[in-house]
Amino acid sequence: CGTHKMNLFQSITSALDNTLASDPTAVIFGEDVAFGGVFRCTVGLRDKYGKDRVFNTPLCEQGIVGFGIGAAVAGATAIAEIQFADYIYPAFDQIVNEAAKYRYRSGNLFDCGSLTIRAPWGCVGHGSLYHSQSPEAFFAHCPGIKVVIPRSPVQAKGLLLSCIADKNPCIFFEPKILYRAAVEQVPEEPYIIPLSQAEILQEGSDVTLVAWGTQIHVMKEVAAMAQEKLGVSCEVIDLQTILPWDTETICKSVVKTGRLLISHEAPITGGFAAEISSTVQEECFLNLEAPISRVCGYDTPFPHIFEPFYIPDKWKCFEAIKKMINY
């Protein structure tokens, strides 16, 4: 089947286009999606499929998700967009207390499993407090939903189509700095990449590096630096699904390497790295050669001019690897 050069936002558009074409119940809604969205992810879809299927909502995240739950319960494939992940909090109650619990509460008589919530996520170079956040850890504490974060156009399309097909409500966070940065050959036809499966991007023997979204690209650079400067062989793993996460792939890798570095942009305290770290410590204690290392954002609001100091860049990660190797 044919592939096209696509950046990340175009691969999202392609996935949404495939869904609207193949599923007559599919609807897409959110703030400004009718004219294509602030990041152009829904460009051309209203003209192609009509204003009953791709439409704007009021500026009300609680309402967007509440409406999405109702649409999904009634049988529609509901794809809700939250304009920035930072603005998902007004919808928190709807996601955590309604969407995540709907099936359980009704003893599986009803569910909103056909709901998918998309939101641009992560740092972008100039987003400051309200356009830079990575809120995945808030939702990782909530059984009943799935949380997924892609690193590139090919992954974005396959994982988004998996979320849309999945019989549970899913949150799909899109690394906004990559919307235009990453370009790949992406199949035009629909395809899926399974959820809850981490991907080993590079095999290695000395240290396991775990990340997701934008940070994967930092980890790949760090792995190259460690090899070149220290002769250290790094295994790089993209977690891809935050909830339910792939414990097996991570633990197998740590048994082999004996060292683990986890890195994310979100603040370190209570970040998802902590969950991975405690699980690995329980499962692989006697295999560890050094304490597990977390290189994350600081416990402050996301800064504006200090963003370069805040983000867990390759130098911070490189220092952490040196420390582990010399432990």
TrEMBL record:
First-listed, main subcellular location of the protein, grouped into a coarse class: mitochondrion
Cellular-component GO terms for this entry: mitochondrial matrix
InterPro entries to which the protein is assigned, alphabetical: THDP-binding, Transketo_C/PFOR_II, Transketolase-like_Pyr-bd, Transketolase_C
Localization (cell): Mitochondrion matrix
UniProt keyword annotations, A-Z: Mitochondrion, Oxidoreductase, Transit peptide
CDD domains xref list: TPP_PYR_E1-PDHc-beta_like
Domain Transketolase-like pyrimidine-binding as annotated: residue spans: 6-181
Residues annotated as signal peptide: none
Molecular function, one GO term: branched-chain 2-oxo acid dehydrogenase activity
EC number: 1.2.4.4
GO biological process: branched-chain amino acid catabolic process; response to nutrient
Reported function: Together with BCKDHA forms the heterotetrameric E1 subunit of the mitochondrial branched-chain alpha-ketoacid dehydrogenase (BCKD) complex. The BCKD complex catalyzes the multi-step oxidative decarboxylation of alpha-ketoacids derived from the branched-chain amino-acids valine, leucine and isoleucine producing CO2 and acyl-CoA which is subsequently utilized to produce energy. The E1 subunit catalyzes the first step with the decarboxylation of the alpha-ketoacid forming an enzyme-product intermediate.
PANTHER family: 2-OXOISOVALERATE DEHYDROGENASE SUBUNIT BETA, MITOCHONDRIAL, 2-OXOISOVALERATE DEHYDROGENASE SUBUNIT BETA-RELATED
Name this protein carries in UniProt: 2-oxoisovalerate dehydrogenase subunit beta, mitochondrial
